Amino acid sequence: MSLNSFGHLFRVTTWGESHGPALGATVDGCPPGVTIDEAQIQHWLDRRKPGQSKYTTQRREPDQVKILSGVFEGQTTGTPVQLMIENTDQRSKDYSEIAEKFRPGHADITYWQKYGIRDYRGGGRSSARETAARVAAGGLARAALNALVPGIEIRGYMTQIGPHGIDRDRFDRDQIDANPFWCPDAQAAGEWAGYLDALRKSGNSVGAVVEVVARGVPAGLGAPVYGKLDTDLAAAMMSINAVKGVEIGEGMAAATLTGEDNADEIFMGNDGQPVYSSNHAGGILGGISTGQDVVVRFAVKPTSSILKPRQTITKSGEAAEIITKGRHDPCVGIRAVPVGEAMMACVLLDHLLLHRGQIGENRGRIG
Amino acid sequence: MSLNSFGHLFRVTTWGESHGPALGATVDGCPPGVTIDEAQIQHWLDRRKPGQSKYTTQRREPDQVKILSGVFEGQTTGTPVQLMIENTDQRSKDYSEIAEKFRPGHADITYWQKYGIRDYRGGGRSSARETAARVAAGGLARAALNALVPGIEIRGYMTQIGPHGIDRDRFDRDQIDANPFWCPDAQAAGEWAGYLDALRKSGNSVGAVVEVVARGVPAGLGAPVYGKLDTDLAAAMMSINAVKGVEIGEGMAAATLTGEDNADEIFMGNDGQPVYSSNHAGGILGGISTGQDVVVRFAVKPTSSILKPRQTITKSGEAAEIITKGRHDPCVGIRAVPVGEAMMACVLLDHLLLHRGQIGENRGRIG
Amino acid sequence: MSLNSFGHLFRVTTWGESHGPALGATVDGCPPGVTIDEAQIQHWLDRRKPGQSKYTTQRREPDQVKILSGVFEGQTTGTPVQLMIENTDQRSKDYSEIAEKFRPGHADITYWQKYGIRDYRGGGRSSARETAARVAAGGLARAALNALVPGIEIRGYMTQIGPHGIDRDRFDRDQIDANPFWCPDAQAAGEWAGYLDALRKSGNSVGAVVEVVARGVPAGLGAPVYGKLDTDLAAAMMSINAVKGVEIGEGMAAATLTGEDNADEIFMGNDGQPVYSSNHAGGILGGISTGQDVVVRFAVKPTSSILKPRQTITKSGEAAEIITKGRHDPCVGIRAVPVGEAMMACVLLDHLLLHRGQIGENRGRIG
Amino acid sequence: MSLNSFGHLFRVTTWGESHGPALGATVDGCPPGVTIDEAQIQHWLDRRKPGQSKYTTQRREPDQVKILSGVFEGQTTGTPVQLMIENTDQRSKDYSEIAEKFRPGHADITYWQKYGIRDYRGGGRSSARETAARVAAGGLARAALNALVPGIEIRGYMTQIGPHGIDRDRFDRDQIDANPFWCPDAQAAGEWAGYLDALRKSGNSVGAVVEVVARGVPAGLGAPVYGKLDTDLAAAMMSINAVKGVEIGEGMAAATLTGEDNADEIFMGNDGQPVYSSNHAGGILGGISTGQDVVVRFAVKPTSSILKPRQTITKSGEAAEIITKGRHDPCVGIRAVPVGEAMMACVLLDHLLLHRGQIGENRGRIG
Q1: Binned average pLDDT, 10 residues per bin, chain B of 367 residues
Q2: Out of 1.10.760.10, 3.60.150.10, 3.40.718.10, 3.40.140.10, which CATH number does the structure's domain C5-359 have?
Q3: Is residue D335 a known part of a binding site?
Q4: What is B11-25 written as a DSSP string?
Q5: Rounded to a whole number, what is the distance in Å from the CA of A65 to chain B's nearest CA?
Q6: CA distance B333 to chain C (A)
């Protein structure tokens, strides 16, 4: 069994390999009546597209999405939406080396151990190219979310590359789109440029931390106890290639706090909605959204494909050395930003639909 | 919709409230022919039981499990196993305060906003008491795992309480059961005792980090791309009450590494199985187990119920101050250790069954 | 893997064996705020209870339901509702014969072939006693349905016993509760009494047809194309013990009709809702409810436990003769009536919740 | 929520509309290592293809399948298999009439009532064209089944058209492919030809009964109690367009039998496997396969698109008369034969994988 779907009601199944004819997302459960076209989805895909700066892989794919079903006269019909992206940059490359040798840090060896067969071309199914399909589905999810919850806003950005983090005091939302790192701190972005340049030239790579924040999320989303909003977000982010850690609100640092410090005190806002003194919880209590910003962070490991020689074995068990040539991201975390945003959009829409299914919105009133 | 189940083939549904007549786990999909009785499950429940030291809540529940179905003459039959724990310590307490006021850091306000009704007695469904049902299910999962994969071993322990972490150089497996903190570092355990004593007396609480390691896991478990082993472990751990972050292998620290440093190089072992120079990956590549130790870590936030007065509001929107009296854990992370172990057992058994369903075990051979 | 759950959002998991300590239903996804107590559920269980006439098994079980979770101060809370029925009539009977011999028509041989172990006491998990749990869950579903769709009404009755069918011209709803057969035709009921008496005395049994009709179902329920309302109803009814055929509307007889005859013509009703000239479709078009009566029919095979000697084999493969003594229903179809009603209630509630999740109710207006 | 997937481990999601750019099946959970190519799948699609005789619709679609993912060097890899069929016969037709009027017997009105929008061109998602995707998925399922269970054989045929049934005494397997009706009775086939000719000329249509039989199914498949083999088959067949009834073994006629007559007595065969005196049960006891032939029957209603004028209403609620012109099947049941076979193949493979996941094959031995 493969498990290539996620979501409860808004259900996304991605399919396709890095170097096969196409890849895509089969989206089932999108509400009808959402205005959507290929251009809207393309907008989000273009943000993830490779080759946009020297800091991401130079593979050049137009990543052009086609809507094959589920949309009629510019609106979703409630039937499955098929989003297909054809693979065009399938260079006739020599794959004989990676067909035999397992690249350290890659899924080569485990796919082989699990399935006994693998499409080794460009990593096949385990390639980060799979995330293009997520971004396409996320574009549709955003359109539906915006229609159902006006004012909702999802934004991802980098907070750390290697040992270099941003300074929260210099956080500026407007900077995020102004540099090739989705970095909200202009000064950090400048430093990262030099750091990554040196890494890239040395054939090395580095990890990163991405933060995704959703504003305007209604209170009440999340299905305790195993479909909590944070549970589903953790799964969504951990399923992205190369992610090794996920945090909600304070995250791992919550371990260091006292109960007194960690308490987000509650007050009544002027608009008759609760407000909080702080947001250690990351907008989620008991698995259910509070109405505050939903804050998720995840760590992406360094790109495993590097020019540094590493020891490995072949399929026949022989010792071997490998250098992974080709066009690779020195920091794969950069392109994970739009992917994290897409996953946030899908999870939020899914929980919005679940919540409506149960009880209508915000049934319990305060005051 | 609530989502009170987890697992694909080994499917656990927990039910019950903190102060209702009973709680339990309905376990569907346990393989037939597993030798099990109530005493075996009780063994694991007793490890989680409150009131075992002054560092955990003084609520005294025997937490006695009853098997109501699915077991015949000491063996599972392949039909659902109902594990029930009756609630006996239901003191006739005055709940009028928490019926009206929302406790900061608790799910009181969000359950109200979502459902418009909540069983406020002891936190109802959102109480950590729900985890007793997980531990019971985990006991059954362990029995099945041991029968199917001889030699598999799952062990959890604390690595940090508040700002105080263990010293990995002093790591001693035998210490874990020798102190009330499941701490593998005897010296740290001593320091934690004093630290927690002071916290408890001051009516405060603190967070913690728990690590769970599985040894002897066969290669090949995990279902890419949305049922990856790490994805399901992240969801399983994040669904535990008060957890705010989950890490696999290097976790968040992966962000700081270079690709060269992060590569787990591969060699051929003497037994004809691959061995690795290191385990930055935490035993999982591309979502599939490598055969190395599977390493998961999670952060538990400080207990929200503290004696320090905090600001909040009432159901009618009035400002109020609240002190959460009662019997509480100064560090709820301590009792999360057996819960983390139980979730690991359930996830591994689930993926073992999935893997067998698809292709038999370890189909791809090396060498 | 067992699959002991049904429903998408209103999800019922039944558990328990005929002669174990208890059986029940774990119901997840019930909307919050539904007024319910044990007496309401008991009302429906009492209709299914054995021993109410000489035409049903003389096993005497009070079938007393207990609500263990999910209800607080008389209302559902949105958390799982555990409905437990303890088994009290566990006579210390000699099961050595059926432990060894496979009863023809029963699941004895297939459970053995599948699981290699079976609780043979009274049929274990494959006993029709499992349906008590369905009826309990159905009682909860009815309460929720009534709260959400005032005026909805679900009614089951027998239309055939052996070769003896009812006369539709004598159909009288008021007769259904007036005889031990849930028969809407008083004259047929009289004939059935004599027919069944003779069968019972001869140690034989007979099959039956049950019809279940739901009135007041809103248009728009059903999720094409694999969760169609008729698809889910077919699965629900076929999952009941001994059911061998399921029909919607015209059912198998649809094969004999021409398109001209089968067309349910559409008109505009006085209340601004569509009305139909006929209901060959059974209230469902393209898997979605039309607003007409939803009509389902199913055939129940004759009770397999009879006093007539039949040939079989033992576990060790020896030829043997078997007579199934004990307290059995000469027509198990009679007690299937409340079970069919319960399944209808669960499926309708489930689809109502799905529909609300997607788009609100009856989005497309006519006129 | 739409529910466009079926299957537990072998999971098929169909997508696409009758007159959109393409339709297809996303198949997740196919075991790796199955030898497959487009020609093998095309073989089954060609059997369902319209325009093969004057008794099926004259729409001419090549229905050419493309494999877009999940297959590498002629073998499945265990990743999702995308099977796409482009729609080529999208005549620029005038759909203004059916855009406004609801065709009786079609899903026009209910899709409108549910979704508030519908792709009316050729029935959109509710068109029987969707079944092409099922047949493609079924072709893959057959290949996997044959690899896992050598000798398994699935065969569908017509047993009734309108009032005219076959004579079981003239049943001849070799006749099935020898006439345009998949009729195993040569004499009946001749009669049907004349009957259908007359119907077609008069612009009318008629219903039919299809029977699908699987031989060589291992004992032990089926997951009680809500994923019984018969339950899943009932759902699978009822989900096919226009199906109104499903029977297993004796089906509805089981109502007329006595227990004595209905008992399939058990004997020990020469090969050490149980044999049965008869197969009233249709190869399934307690939801689990016995090893006998699995026998399913379903009724297909007459094609709703006829040239006879029928009364209906428009979207704005006006009374109207409608004649459904165009290329239609006088008996849509004929083309349902390969669809029923495909659903049988998918369900059997799915349960084979489930069974292997749990306990290996045929764990309980007899003798």
Answers
A1: 87 97 97 96 89 70 92 96 90 79 96 93 94 98 95 98 98 96 97 94 95 96 96 98 98 96 95 94 98 98 91 95 81 95 98 76 60
A2: 3.60.150.10
A3: no
A4: EEEEEE-TTSSEEEE
A5: 21
A6: 25
